[in-house]
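User: Is it possible to get a 3D structure for a protein together with its bound compound? The compound here is protoporphyrin IX containing FE. I've pasted both below.
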Amino acid sequence: MDRRLPPPIHYSQYLQLEQLLGCQQPESAKYGPAAHDELLFIITHQAYELWFKQTVHELESVRQEFLSPTIPDSRFGPLIQRLQRVRAIQGLWLTQIDVLETMTPLDFLEFRDLLVPASGFQSMQFKRIETLLGVQRQQRTAADQDFVRSRLGAADQAELAQWESEPSLLELTDRWLARMPFLQFGNFQFWEHYGTAVREMLQRDRQIIETNPALSAEQRDRQLSAHAATSQRFEAILDEGQFNELRDQGHFRLSHRGFLAALFTHLYRDQPMFHLPFRYLTLLVEIDEGLTQWRMRHVLMVQRMLGRKIGTGGSAGSEYLQQTMMHNRVFLDLYALSTFLLPRSALPTLPQQLTAALGFHFSQG
Ligand code: HEM
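Assistant: Yes, that's possible. Here is the predicted structure of the complex:
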């Protein structure tokens, strides 16, 4: 057997430090004395790009697993671990802003004009994270879409279009949910029982509004119309036709079957079979939240650094970023599930055969 050892490798060789530490080139130094804080500005962005690279690596590996027609339960452990890693990295995205904010707006002005028209908007790895999760071109605001056309080079635009044509984690999660076997239960009409339990709960809520002596007539009317809207949404998720109409209008992105499977997973998450799927869906919500938290911190930093100035990329600055924060979210359907949850005490009791299928069983002999 060949037992030759690989040649010894030095720390700096392994990490390619010469290249890594050689690529911080302040623009200001090319035109006069280097602005002291430009090094921090460059290093912060480069550190983000490295963590974006790791984030893409994790999310793409999860997406690859979900591309296969079946995902064995044994794969969920590693997949969940990778998504937890993404959450931990998102924590770093936030704290790095604290470091950059040690630069004052006046110090930023020392070199800001030299960066035009470069902008974080042109970060392709950030766009990759967005599209991997499920941000679609048509959901972007008009200004955002216009920026994609005018601020990205031809090669970047082609790459973005290619990513957009591939199934995202949202779409693949929907397909996986829609395949979930526990939505047909032989003769047991779960969704009928669920509908009855929901209508009873809504009826009780309505009575509370109608008989609450503390409400003025105007307040009562307002609460009753909000209650009617909630009832309408409940009826819509129980009716595929109504659900699809709302989906066509952009109120849902999951399919009807996928949405019901996600809801069922949440309602019966105490069942052992649903522990990992529930954890997986919760992590998607947390990652969506992590991205939104970063956008929020970034907007606040931009307001602090620029006030009402436009961005180096030419956008309306913080106003533009507030819009992307609201529009470029992905897993809103999973947030919406909470509207349709019932207290455990009101949940339909599942047939024993079904609870047995959802549990883990060990028999000796
Ligand atoms: C002084 C600090 C910063 C300022 C003033 C700033 C400003 C801006 C502005 C105004 C935009 C909107 C596009 C434009 O007109 O340029 C933007 C977009 C963006 N910036 Fe920053 N930025 C800063 C730091 C960072 C850092 C450290 C990152 C990390 C990579 C970053 C990543 C991004 C990304 C990804 C976008 C696109 C966001 C989206 O499309 O929703 N920025 N930035």
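The mean pLDDT is 93. The CA atoms of residues 178 and 258 lie 4 Å apart.
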